[in-house]
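note to self — DONT lose this again. spent like an hour looking for the file last time. sequence + predicted structure for the chain T wanted, 463 res
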Amino acid sequence: MKKRIFSVLSILLVALAAFAEGKAKYVFYFIGDGMGVNQVNAAETYLGALEGRIGIKELCFPSFPYVGLVNTQSATNGVTDSAAGGTALASGNKTKNGALGVLKDLETPINCIAHWALDAGAAVGVTTSVSIDHATPAAFYSHVPKRSMYYEIGSQLPGSGFDFFAGSDFLKPENPNGGPDLYAQAQAGGYTIARGYKDYQKKAKKADKMILFQTEAASKIERNSIPYAIDRTKDDLTLQDITRAAINFLMKKQGLRDGFFLMVEGGKIDWGCHANDPVFITELIDMDNAVKVAYEFYQQHPDETLIVITADHETGGMTMGRGAYELNLKAVASQRMSMDKLNRELNTMKEKMGDKFTWGEGKKFLTDNFGFWGDVKVNDDQASRLEKSFNEFKEGKAGADRLCSTVKHVISECAMIGWQSGGHSNGYVPAFAIGVGAEQFHGRFDNTEICKKMAKAAGWEVK
């Protein structure tokens, strides 16, 4: 009898302890695509350099109390791609590189944390700074054997039943069979489409489900992503706007839903690193600004919120230091535009100026926009390479991309940033966490464990 009473009391105590600890009602999942440990360190070291000192200036999310290291291999490769990496982060399952939301047999569909949250009654949002049918966001709602099946991915979006989506646009909205395009399909599925943050504010109140895209004018320039932070104008959609809109809309669903799950991807950290362009630093800082929006929410709901930040893989094999025991990350501050914008600007200048587009004009442009021969000292070899690439472009022997390549390599050399490749690596990626259940994100773990830890914190059933 005493034994039974003790057992009952033990069960009650465990239950009371669990109740006292609470569950994560609001769950944020930030994914910095391509963001390895060194990328985070570079951004903080850069901010320290801007203050004229050696050391770091802390960003918001790397200062969260729980930190871990994450392994990222896929089911078939020692180095994962974003599709397999995203699938692991979303579903807790390894798959073949290139596959989304299916096992490595490329046929068996798998559910993910977004579905677990929805089944538990939570509102769900999936957002990104790139197109909504790109690998990472697609891993949370689609099931396809190839990540390049953009139309098929987009056509699966309305069937998810999720409450909120955001990104730059659809990559391939046209129906190959001649039927309704993806915009019409989304609207038929109950989604209101907003174009830009101001349009969102006008439409959100009456919308049942929402997709937030950038303006049509922005998509005409580049539909595959919102602009790099360094290139944005005041009218451009930002990752902060997206995060703020998502929280606003998902909170609007409370009463009908119980809490929410929100995934936010900073997708162009990866793009900058693929290009070996130091612009990844400002992209990472930009994602941190989006995390700050979630952190403000956490401060208002500290006993009900979990925020986790991680990455799908590292990109570029990026290091700080090129042999000499020196760094000059302050040189990155002189970069005024991404290589994408530089490419467009160079072509425009060449077309408008014609014969007047001399090396003198080109040199002045590079000084104004990248600091060369000004705040950023270049040696004779670097200056010669820049002039040669410019002349080849001017004379039609090479495209603007060749000159852009030279520019970004010179910036990296001056900043003492080293690159191993233009692809992914198997380097550890970090995980940072704060809030209810954040203590689980400590030590070393596999990427397949992250969503399961989050589900445990929220009390959602893993299916």
